[in-house]
Amino acid sequence: MKSLWIAAITATALTATASPAWQTSATSQQGQAAQNSNSPNLAGTDVVAELSKTVNVKKVKLGDPVKAQVMQDVLSHGSIVIRRGTKLVGHVTEVKVRSGDDQESRLGVVFDKALLKHGEEIDFNAAIRALAPAVRIGAVDRPDAMLPPMVAPMQSSGPQPMGGGGATTRGASTSSVSSAGPVSENAATRTEVYSAAAGYGGVSADTGLISAGSRGVFGMPALHINLDAKVAGSIISSTSRNVKLDSGTQMVIQVGNQSH
Q: Which of 72, 102, 182, 211 is found 20 to 30 A from 200 (Cα to Cα)?
């Protein structure tokens, strides 16, 4: 009788500790779904960034990486989800050099992800929606530390035409930006100036800084932008020269489709 009692207890314990494969799989899927639901929904969000390295249509090939740095904090439901200084990684989707028979040059780019701290990533498809020349920021142009940074809106109020555009005085800033002199290599200085000079809908005439919500090309009349629906990216084109985006080129990147 004692042996039967011990055997019964042992069987009960084994049944309680062993989980069937389908239950383990379901639990894993539920955990993954919960993790995905916690990821921020950035669809439609504008990200102000600077190109980290020159991209020249005469030197790149399909699939080459394109890297940028976020210049203003990105908010979602009142919380910062992508901090200024975050690295963005994309790739070249189309390359076309001008020729005697075809004067159009084309460069296709899509951004794939944001590299967060501690190895975390946010995967998405994001297109370049606005371009402006690099801004030269000297060390003396660092904004007053007592002034809180302004946060630009993440999303445009509606569709706007692509292509060339002019400067606007909306969102003028109290901080100054050099029109000449060396570009500051201090990333903290550059991102602070961008945040302090955040404006709306174009390029500030006072600072030359692009802002979230901008659409088109500012101060680069030879270039045009069109969306590339095939890869949820953008095509930058020119009929007067080969497309070349210098390091430091300002961009507004809009997140489209987002994967987890």
A: 182
